[in-house]
Write a structure and sequence with these properties.
The complex is a heterotrimer of chains A (362), B (293) and C (282).
Chain A (H helix, E strand, L loop, with lengths): L7 H26 L5 H26 L7 H19 L6 H27 L4 H20 L2 E5 L2 E5 L12 E5 L13 H19 L2 H11 L1 H6 L4 H24 L12 H14 L4 H17 L7 H17 L1 H31 L1
Antiparallel strand pairs in A: 1-2, 1-3
Helix pairs in contact in A: 1-6, 1-11, 2-6, 2-9, 2-10, 2-11, 3-4, 3-5, 3-9, 4-9, 6-9, 7-9, 10-11
Chain B lengths: L1 H30 L6 H17 L5 H24 L7 H23 L4 E2 L9 E3 L4 E3 L1 H23 L1 H11 L1 H6 L4 H26 L2 E2 L5 H14 L4 H22 L4 H15 L14
Antiparallel strand pairs in B: 1-4, 2-3
Chain C lengths: L3 E3 L5 E3 L9 E10 L2 E11 L4 E5 L6 H8 L7 E6 L2 E2 L5 H6 L2 E3 L12 H8 L8 H6 L4 H18 L15 H14 L4 E5 L7 H18 L2 E5 L3 H7 L2 E6 L2 E6 L1 H5 L2 H19 L1
Classes of the chains: A mainly alpha (362), B mainly alpha (293), C alpha/beta (282).
Chain lengths: 362, 293, 282
């Protein structure tokens, strides 16, 4: 009888993701509280959390749903700036910072989710590379629009303009969004704990979704669209479900990200950021949530660790990226890996048998 | 008069996009991959031309030829080292590798030539033409760019329709395995496609920097993305499509910049792209492929 | 096997289905691909519990008919009535929910998913569970999952595949993949199931088992089966009504005995044979 692959090991891999995140937090949090982390690592904790959430959420679109998206940073951007506006509006109303942060993150998620809906309805009719280019285009459009947006707040509430700050018609108050300069004067309320909770929340949503009726429908569409349609699954509905969920989670991550800086501009969330997140997902493995977490952490820290070699670090990063892709994807590298493995096994076996043979002969 | 002047500027910019888009579309047509590093080959071409004129005092036209030669070699080397081992891998793996190559070229350029912008002197030896008593000025760069674009278009069309290599390229893009069975060396054909695309990128780099004379290591990325958009706009894989897409994109960009808002010009450009793709999902001149059930 | 009798509209259905509304009716169905007519004037009635065969030489347009019936291709002309209701303008998914399920000539399983999950995807519309239960695994999630797992195992057991439930679908042997496709189609609770060359690539004993299974499907689920098949032994043995397609047009309809002796059918098949012999001699 042929040996068949048991699939429940996939479930176990995903549970490992929870474990890894919790252990990492349990180690890092006391160290951070005790001030034992280096400055650079300390500053990276929240961005790493944010990028892990982004990678997991993009993995839902690219890995689970099978749609190549090159505009994920756009949703991060929508979340960041709607979060900034929410934070400014709630500054006085909610003085307890963690609670305000929760509201800010939820706002970011809702607005990014709405953006996901508006973009998803037209975009998801396209396939493959065309879908990729249109998501790229949407990412750039979002960046451009936010670059032209001026928002201020005063006693009478929020003011919006697309021209300049003077056309806001403000009486006193302060500017929240200043066109190309982006958001200014943000009160930093992000915390490592919030990042940790957001990762757990993302894992909860994404892993649960994968192992559910909706998740099966999404995977079925990816595996075979025509067969999925033939068993009565609405393609648009489930592609949208995955896309909106992914966008909303990216928006939440974006909101948390913005709350970690005092100023932030829309050009931070450009095409290169989208690509960066995609690299995390692909190197971590398509559809592999644990892989996304590990790849994000390693690749985010790597350029920092390479800082000592100064100017060469991004060059090394590029070479590492190319080599990893070549080693994990080229058929020749795979063959070499297999033959190397058998060679090592043979050597090990020989050593074992070798000792046995000696006694036989003797 | 500004309308005509804008139109000419648009066609000129569009011609540059078209030349870059040709590289994207040929590579996509034959290797079914999005070569994200193509934009950075443009940058390398511009630097080579700049260095050979400034450091070696080569005449401008010769500097273009040197740039083309260097980029051709670069394109073939990139293909051979980074893309060829991944011929059977998923398209996403190839895409990420191409992004890696793009990072590599940008950072290598940063190390070699520094981040300080170089001021590129135009390679066009004659003056701008002034018409209607100075109301309409047609820059010499615009004239050269448009003429170059037309010549390239005609040559490429002849090459793919008539030449033996061109026929091999079309065969490989239709069906790689069948072409191989017919005795076509697919690896060589794909290398040739990269060679031609990269040589064109060098030309585009020189023309781009003649019109917008600031040279930095990241100069290729935005025109690269836009040219890629142009290729998709016209129908990726189609040579006339890349031409049409490029020129339309250039005209739209210049018009949006001068009549609506310079800040929103990219947003308008991409919005039009999205609308076109929604109405015609395979681009203006792309062929629809029906999935067999 | 029941006697086939003329239906009021002129079509023939098994006698036992005479007092029931037919499950499937097509009237003057036709489709063109870029000016080329692939199928034309396809009018057929399938009884509520009939096993109906669709045969014909390669390229006759049989799979195209299936694709039109499931709205994978939108027909250029004519109407399809499924359970008396027109399917025009519906999506493939909506037509499936109206009661038509199918298998594919080139197997289309969700090959990265387990056998059980493949069937559970088939149960998608029979056992509902909203987005909130999906992402929280609360609010009725467990109950819905349990019901759907039980039902899926029941269906798999019907084809003695329950022990393969956890296996990855893509790693199944060929015959089992074909069976799984049928189970998945049945899971959608259809009124008629379309099987596209179910015996392709099977050995005689597997084919015999398949014939038995097709009869069991009809008897247990009380649904009709329409199948495309080149194995004449299978078709003549289990089909009650047969429709012969050649060059996109129906050249004969009737019971197996009628089809066997139909001169047009003999010409379509034997005419080809003669040509083949001629070319072999020449």
């Amino acid at each position: 009888m042929k040996k068949y692959r048991d699939l429940s090991k996939y479930a176990r891999t995903n549970l490992k993701a929870y474990g890894l995140v919790i252990i990492a937090f349990a180690i890092l949090f006391p160290l951070q509280s005790a001030g034992m982390l280096s400055n650079s690592l300390n500053g990276q904790l929240i961005p790493i959390c944010v990028y892990i959430v982004l990678a997991i959420s993009l993995n839902l679109t690219v890995g689970i749903s099978g749609e190549l998206s090159l505009g994920h940073a756009g949703f991060m951007s929508v979340g960041a700036f709607s979060g900034v506006i929410a934070a400014a509006s709630l500054q006085d109303a909610v003085s307890f910072e963690p609670l305000r942060l929760v509201f800010v993150i939820i706002t970011g998620g809702i607005f990014a989710g709405i953006a996901g809906l508006l973009i998803g309805i037209p975009v998801l009719r396209l396939r493959g590379d065309y879908l990729a280019i249109v998501t790229l285009a949407f990412g750039e459009i979002i960046k451009n629009i936010i670059n032209c947006l001026y928002v201020g707040i005063d006693g009478s509430g929020l003011h919006f303009s697309v021209k300049n700050t003077s056309s806001l018609g403000m009486s006193g108050g302060r500017i929240i969004l200043n066109g190309p300069q982006g958001a200014v004067g943000i009160t930093k309320i992000a915390s490592f704990t919030a990042g940790f909770v957001l990762i757990l929340f993302t894992l909860f949503i994404v892993i649960n979704l994968i192992y559910s009726r909706s998740g099966r429908a999404i995977t079925a569409i990816r595996d075979n669209r025509i067969a999925a349609e033939s068993v009565g699954i609405s393609i648009t509905k489930y592609k949208l479900t995955a896309f909106i969920t992914s966008a909303a989670l990216a928006g939440m991550a974006g909101a948390l990200y913005a709350m970690n800086f005092s100023t932030i501009a829309a050009k931070k969330f450009d095409f290169n950021t989208s690509i960066l997140i995609l690299v995390f997902v692909v190197l971590g493995g398509m559809g592999n949530i644990l892989g996304s977490i590990i790849a994000t952490t390693v690749l985010y820290i790597l350029p920092e660790m390479l800082r000592e070699i100064g100017d060469y670090r991004m060059l090394i990063y590029a070479i590492v990226l190319i080599l990893v892709m070549l080693l994990t994807n080229s058929s020749r590298a795979k063959q070499m890996a297999v033959s190397l493995e058998t060679k090592i096994k043979n050597i090990l076996r020989k050593n074992k048998n070798g000792s046995g043979e000696v006694t036989d002969n003797g | 008069m500004t309308l005509i002047s804008n139109l000419i500027n648009g066609i000129s910019l569009g011609s540059v996009y078209a030349i870059i888009a040709l590289g994207y579309t040929m590579v996509y047509g034959i290797a079914k991959m999005l070569n994200f590093a193509h934009g950075d080959v443009i940058m390398v071409g511009a630097y080579i031309s700049y260095l050979s004129t400034t450091a070696l005092n080569v005449p401008p036209l010769l500097s273009v030829l040197i740039a083309m030669a260097v980029c051709t070699v670069l394109g073939v080397v990139i293909e051979g080292l980074a893309y060829r081992p991944l011929r059977k891998a998923s398209s996403l793996a190839v895409l990420i590798t191409a992004i890696g190559v793009s990072y590599f070229l940008q950072n290598a350029a940063l190390l070699i030539w520094g981040s300080a912008p170089k001021s590129f002197s135009s390679i066009v030896p004659f003056d701008s033409i002034s018409l209607f008593g100075g109301d309409l000025i047609i820059t010499s760069e615009a004239i050269v760019t448009v003429i170059t674009c037309i010549v390239i278009m005609i040559l490429l069309n002849l090459f793919t329709k008539k030449g033996k290599m061109g026929k091999a390229m079309r065969a490989v893009s239709e069906d790689k395995d069948a072409a191989q069975l017919m005795g076509i060396n697919t690896n060589f054909t794909i290398s040739m496609t990269f060679a031609i695309g990269s040589a064109l990128a060098a030309v585009a780099g020189v023309l781009l920097c003649s019109a917008y004379p600031t040279l930095t290591p990241t100069i290729g990325s935005m025109p690269g993305i836009k040219a890629f958009t142009a290729a998709v706009f016209g129908g990726i894989g189609s040579i006339p499509g890349a031409m049409l897409g490029g020129i339309l994109l250039g005209v739209i960009e210049i018009f949006a910049t001068s009549y609506i808002s310079s800040q929103l010009s990219d947003a308008i450009l991409f919005a039009i792209l999205i609308i076109v793709l929604l109405v015609k999902p395979t681009g203006l001149l792309g062929k629809a492929v029906k999935e067999k059930v | 096997m029941d006697k086939m009798v003329p239906y009021p509209s002129g079509a023939i259905v098994p006698e036992r289905d005479l007092d029931k509304k037919p499950i499937l009716e097509t009237h003057h169905l036709g489709i063109d691909f870029g000016g080329l007519t692939a199928v034309d004037e396809f009018s057929l009635t399938v009884g509520r519990t009939e096993i109906c065969g669709l045969i014909g030489p390669n390229g006759a347009g049989k799979t195209t008919v299936f694709n039109m019936l499931t709205n994978v291709y939108q027909p250029t002309r004519g109407t399809i009535l499924l359970d008396g209701k027109p399917t025009a303008g519906k999506t493939t998914a909506q037509v499936n929910r109206m009661g038509i399920a199918r298998t594919f000539q080139n197997i289309r399983l969700f090959s990265n998913m387990s056998v059980l999950d493949n069937v559970k995807v088939g149960l998608h519309n029979s056992i509902k569970e909203g987005f909130i239960p999906s992402v929280t695994h609360l609010f009725g999630y467990r109950k819905a999952e349990k019901t759907s797992t039980e039902r899926a195992l029941e269906l798999l057991d019907f084809f003695s595949m329950a022990d393969l439930a956890k296996v990855q679908a893509g790693s199944l042997p060929y015959g089992a993949q074909r069976r799984l496709e049928i189970v998945r189609a049945l899971a959608t609770n259809p009124g008629i199931i379309l099987l596209d060359e179910p015996a392709a690539g099977m050995n005689p004993s597997e084919t015999a088992e398949l014939m038995e299974n097709i009869r069991r499907i009809r008897d247990t689920f009380q649904i009709s089966v329409m199948l495309i098949e080149h194995d004449m032994n299978l078709v003549m043995n289990i089909c009650e009504g047969i429709c012969v397609l050649d060059h996109g047009k129906i050249i004969a309809k009737g019971t197996p005995d009628e089809i066997k002796s139909n001169p047009a059918v003999i010409e379509a098949y034997l005419g080809k044979k003669k040509e083949a012999e001629d070319s072999a001699e020449g």
